[in-house]
Write a structure and sequence with these properties.
alpha/beta, GMP Synthetase, Chain A, domain 3, 2 domains, 11-stranded mixed beta sheet, 18 strands
Length: 500
């Protein structure tokens, strides 16, 4: 059976590669087709009538008639959908609501329709198939796989099921993978994250694991509990573990820590999933960035991040983007989201095909003094400093210190070290030098004596997990923001978590 399964996986992977290559090689035409289909299918909805979709024939028409919105601006329409109305944002009613926590609007209900649901499933499957196509590693389909995710238990609201996205997706695991998949359904339904991880450890200890997937910070917790239980490296416990699939955050700050926990290097595949859509996946092991999903019922626009808060920022399509520019990603989808700002910023690493990296969040930045620091810059600066030392980091976040007890303001880096540097100040100096190289605004502020160089506050082991528990966001799809323009996180860390 395993030989048949491996052979079938190779054939399926080759077919998938050819299918993806067809639309990836014709990106502009593919996006135009998606755009026209979206407008046509939604022309009779309430949103379509309100914005005169029947008169839209070009992208320029769309820009004139449909403004960029975030959840708050789209909320009046979403509330009607949640209330049970049909044909509001998309034809009919959604299959699901992906329920997420919003910072200003409380719970957010993101619609998932029968047309959009396949994109959430296909992209992850395609990422694995393209990995098999490139590497020839079909052994992974014959061994156990684990996906650390939220509970699949769903609620019902006005006849529509709702829950976490990862819990919804759990209902769509293909039959041919169900025998390989862990944890068990019962364990996956455990809500308390610490209890869930402890149970998963017991379920998986004696299994032949080949693929492990999840947000790095929570997989790290799972790995540490495995080691605590056995006294062995993860790679010794699972001798055939050779593929880590992740999404949600940049893996690079975790890579050295993971290699230490595993005891060897393994392959990894990055995904870009969100409640609003599955936007991209890593299609090459030797190429940076993730392939943008262009043929999955999603039309993309981009706004240069530095201009986003201008009165009338220019909206761009794929044909106008450039490599290395920080863009706010705007989407219109077959779930009924129109010119919708999901809050992420991306940079293109390739234009043929179109590949992106997630550079941060438009609301997650530091510009308390006009420095415009983004997540990609702080991650790069930390990684640069780590390369020249034996230091390793478990987690970190950055916030401005506007009113220090003495001296000039500065950026405060809260870092939980796995291996602490012998010279903290010297390590901080290395990071600061790299920050000045990357960000000219930051350089000018340091050189002009407006800011003093950054300072590191050491968070004790387990401190970030304790912080997430304090705010009720331990586990699942929750993650620590890399940086923020205020001290909300910093103050909670300082007050509730022991720091040095």
């Amino acid at each position: 059976m395993s030989l048949i399964k491996s052979f079938a996986a190779k054939l399926y992977a080759a077919r998938t590669y050819n299918k993806i290559n067809r639309w990836a090689s014709n990106p502009i035409e593919t996006q135009e087709r998606v755009f026209q289909s979206l407008i046509s299918d939604a022309s009779s909805t309430q949103f379509g009538r309100d914005h005169n979709f029947k008169s839209i024939s070009t992208y320029e028409d769309f820009v004139k008639q449909v403004p960029v919105r975030d959840y708050e601006a789209l909320k009046p329409y979403i509330e009607k959908v949640v209330g049970g109305e049909e044909d509001v944002l998309w034809k009919g009613r959604p299959l699901y609501f992906a329920k997420t926590s919003g910072t200003t609007s409380g719970a957010k209900y993101i619609p998932i329709t029968k047309e959009s649901m396949p994109s959430h499933i296909e992209a992850a499957k395609n990422a694995i198939l393209l990995y098999i196509y490139q590497t020839g590693n079909t052994k992974i389909v014959n061994r156990k796989m684990i996906f650390l995710q939220g509970s699949p238990v769903l609620e019902t609201k006005n006849g529509i099921q709702l829950g976490r996205l990862s819990g919804i997706v759990a209902h769509y695991v293909p039959k041919y993978l169900q025998k390989n998949r862990l944890p068990t359904w019962k364990t996956n339904c455990i809500e308390d994250w610490e209890t869930k991880v402890n149970t998963i450890v017991q379920e998986t200890l004696n299994e032949d694991m080949s693929v492990i997937a999840g947000i790095p910070s929570w997989v790290q917790m799972y790995f540490e509990k495995l080691i605590e239980e056995t006294g062995q490296k993860v790679g010794e416990i699972f001798k055939n573990f050779n593929l880590f699939i992740f999404g949600g955050v940049n893996y690079e700050p975790y890579r050295s820590k993971f290699e230490s926990l595993i005891g060897r290097k393994i392959d990894s595949v990055e995904l870009y999933p969100a409640s609003e859509g599955f936007f991209a996946f890593q299609d090459r092991q030797n190429k940076p960035g993730m392939l943008l999903q262009l043929d999955s019922g999603m039309f993309y626009e981009f706004i240069v991040a530095d201009t986003f808060f201008d009165a009338s920022p220019t909206r761009l399509t794929l044909k106008d983007v450039k490599i290395g520019v920080n863009y706010v990603i705007i989407i219109s989808t077959n779930a009924g989201l129109w010119a919708y700002n999901i809050g992420d910023t991306v940079q293109f690493t390739s234009l043929a095909p179109f590949r992106v990296i997630v550079s941060g969040r438009i609301k997650h930045f530091i510009s308390a003094f006009g420095e415009h620091v983004i997540a990609k810059e702080v991650e790069h600066a930390l990684l640069s400093a780590l390369k020249t030392t034996e230091v390793s980091v478990s987690e970190f976040t950055v916030a401005p210190q506007i009113e220090p007890l003495e001296g000039l303001p500065y950026h405060e880096w809260f870092i939980e070290f796995e291996k602490t540097p012998s010279d903290i100040e010297g390590f901080a100096t290395q990071i600061d030098a790299e920050m000045q190289l990357q960000n000219s605004y930051y350089f000018d502020l340091i050189q002009g004596k407006v800011l003093q160089p950054l300072k590191i506050t050491t968070v004790q082991k387990g401190g970030f997990q304790n912080y997430m528990k304090t705010i009720g966001k331990l586990g699942g799809q929750n993650k620590i923001p890399r940086l923020s323009n205020d001290r909300k996180i910093a103050d909670v860390l300082t007050e509730n978590v022991q720091v040095k």
